[in-house]
Amino acid sequence: MKSAVNEVELHHQYKEHIFKVMENEPYAQFLGIKLLEIGEGTAVAELNVTDNMINSHGTVHGAVTFAIADYVFAAACNSYGKTAVGLSTTVNYMAAGQKSSRLRATAVEEKKNHKMGWYKINVESNGELIATMEALAYRKSDYFVPLDK
């Protein structure tokens, strides 16, 4: 019989490693997203909006807003060192992000079990809530941090 893994302890033991793995995500680096915090089922990141992130109406492209929300979702659901992937997301766009603004996204775990995790994400533009996301993650059986055997 397998012994249960204490994921909270695993998070604290490997927090720096987990942070580095998530910080080095290639697409986030390409966009310029900066991971600020990672906690037990939580994450915070920021992105300075550049001119190439603007849509035809002069506001932040919805794909950019989605990208930072998806990124903190990924960081939060992988924060225990267990490999997790997104299954579904629902995004609500409430306001337009503004040119030359700073986007800040925060993910919070609502609940998790050994196979699934549920998350709520807020995205702000210069302090104004512009989007929310509800997200569901599938938690695979493997870990990307060492497990003591």
UniProtKB/TrEMBL annotation:
CDD domains assigned: PaaI_thioesterase
Q: Which Gene3D superfamilies match?
A: Hotdog Thioesterase (3.10.129.10)
The protein's matches in InterPro entries, at most eight in alphabetical order, are given as:
Acyl-CoA_thioesterase_PaaI, HotDog_dom_sf, PAAI_dom, Thioestr_dom
What's the domain of life for this entry? Bacteria
Which terms in the Gene Ontology molecular function aspect does this entry carry? acyl-CoA hydrolase activity
Sorted UniProt keywords:
Hydrolase
Start and end of every Thioesterase domain? 57-124
UniProt KW tRNA-binding keyword: no
Looking up Pfam families in the UniProt record yields: 4HBT (PF03061)
NCBIfam families given for it? Answer: unchar_dom_1
What name has this protein been given in UniProt? Acyl-CoA thioesterase
